Amino acid sequence: MRMSVALISALVFLGACSVSKAENPSQEKCTCDTQPPQGVDGAWIKNATACWSTEAPEDQWCDMTVQSLEGDTAQSAVVATLMNNGENGSNLATIFGQQFQTFIKTAEQQGQLKFDVEEARTVVPALLRDNASRIEECVSAFRDATFGKGGVPLEGGSDFRCGVGASSGWLRIEFRVRDLWLAYMLAPQPREASP
Prior knowledge:
Radius of gyration: 16 Å
Shape: globular
Distance between the termini: 46 Å
Protein name: Lipoprotein
Keywords: Signal
Oligomer: single chain
Signal peptide: 1-22
Strand order of the largest sheet: 4-3-8-7-6-5
Strand content: 15-25%
Number of helices: 5
Largest sheet: 6 strands, antiparallel
């Protein structure tokens, strides 16, 4: 798998910062693996709580963009907003659209993108709108996972998939833009420890 020096440096730095409360990497946890389900050939950002990956399975290539780390309030704010809008697919599409726009701004600054930004700006919002009911189901499962209930498998059509990890509770939403998949991954709120 080919990786850029910047990605490797980021992974080494981020991996050294702290160890996540998460037990093991799984596909939905800020991972980048173009050959699942093996899960042995890729990368995992241990202390990330929200991220995007760009995956090119045919090229066995991916990169990752972190949107929040453990202890950061950005992830908590997104989760709270999702919980407050969980029954409204249109609002959820807008919320995920905002996360996508943040990702695109970061990706543009890095340059050397593997996808056409303008095409992605058209495709992703359309996929969000067209899959609002599936997004509602995933956000509902994401909320339920916060309370210890099981997740839902990563499912959808040929251009859109979403799911919630059964053991991790992480939300993963994927969008196809030509031959690439753009994936958004979000950690659940940590459960409060029992006294």
